[in-house]
Amino acid sequence: xxxxxxxxxxxxxxxxxxxxxxxxxxxxxxxxxxxxxxxxxxxxxxxxxxxxxxxxxxxxxxxxxxxxxxxxxxxxxxxxxxxxxxxxxxxxxxxxxxxxxxxxxxxxxxxxxxxxxxxxxxxxxxxxxxxxxxxxxxxxxxxxxxxxxxxxxxxxxxxxxxxxxxxxxxxxxxxxxxxxxx
Length: 182
Hints:
mainly alpha
């Protein structure tokens, strides 16, 4: 019985004479490595022989990037965004058109969301506004104080305070004489 221990961070594997021997394991690894190397070699020679006429085109970085000159490299190194935007575009016209359409759709969506928020705020503010006074005398008293030079907000406060303490007032004249007595 031969015990071989292979120690890893996760497990300990025991190879005994029931399983593969180290020699057969090494032989299998060599065969597998040789098969991969032969496959890669065959692919290389087929590509070399077939060339461009065989329908296999070599990968050329210049086809993907275009020409890069020293000015382009200097602009990248210095971060000259204006030069790069004007001279080093990689997108095709179709891609740019699609991106512009997508950008316009996003702008429209943002505008719709903003309008929806404004409409919601208007609805809430119209619901939150107090309804016109049930007593037309109160509205007339507010108007009278505004005519006499009070600000509308302070006139509302004064009228509401006065009517809270004097609910039996029947005319604007009673209100004016009562509010200025204090």
